[in-house]
């Protein structure tokens, strides 16, 4: 076991975020039994590409507790507009189909995990 594994524990399993588009948005996001982290991205967006591995790590770390989903803004124009997404990347945090928090632009893993813990899971920092 390496030093980083000893300090931070083993890496989260690789889990793909759920792909969301206009056809399955209601089923996958609005009616989800789990809270949802929705990453809205667009092709050719540099910050979106930087966020991708962080979103994949979130999917593994919160598997079974939070649904992590990704939505290409160009393929889901109806729900991108309904959500009021004006730029990418935008990460929308939803609980019982209602938005509880939003982040526009690139942010790091630590901030996203803090939002998931506080806003979606109700976990407070010690």
User: Tell me about the biggest sheet?
Assistant: 5 strands, mixed
What CATH architecture do you see?
A: 3-Layer(aba) Sandwich
Label the structural class.
alpha/beta
Annotation, overall tally of beta strands = 5
Spatial arrangement of strands, main beta sheet: 1-3-2-4-5
Q: Indicate the CATH class.
A: Alpha Beta
The helix-strand sequence is HEHEHEHEEH
Q: Helical content, roughly? A: 25-40%
Radius of gyration: 14 Å
Give the overall shape.
Answer: globular
Separation, N- and C-terminal Cα atoms = 28 Å
Rounded average pLDDT: 92
In words, what does this structure look like?
With 126 residues, the protein is an alpha/beta fold. The protein has 5 helices and 5 strands. It has a 5-stranded mixed beta sheet. The two termini are 28 Å apart.
């Amino acid at each position: 076991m390496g030093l980083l594994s000893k300090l931070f524990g083993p890496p989260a399993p690789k889990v793909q975020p759920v792909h969301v588009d206009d056809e399955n948005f209601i089923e996958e996001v609005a009616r989800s039994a789990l809270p949802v982290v929705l990453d809205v991205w667009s092709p050719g967006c540099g910050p979106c590409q930087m966020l991708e591995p962080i979103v994949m790590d979130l999917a593994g770390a919160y598997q079974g507790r939070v649904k992590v989903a990704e939505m290409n803004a160009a393929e889901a124009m109806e729900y991108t507009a309904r959500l009021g997404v004006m730029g990418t990347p935008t990460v929308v945090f939803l609980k019982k189909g209602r938005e509880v928090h939003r982040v526009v632009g690139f942010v790091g893993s630590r901030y996203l995990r803090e939002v998931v813990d506080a806003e979606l899971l109700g976990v407070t920092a010690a």
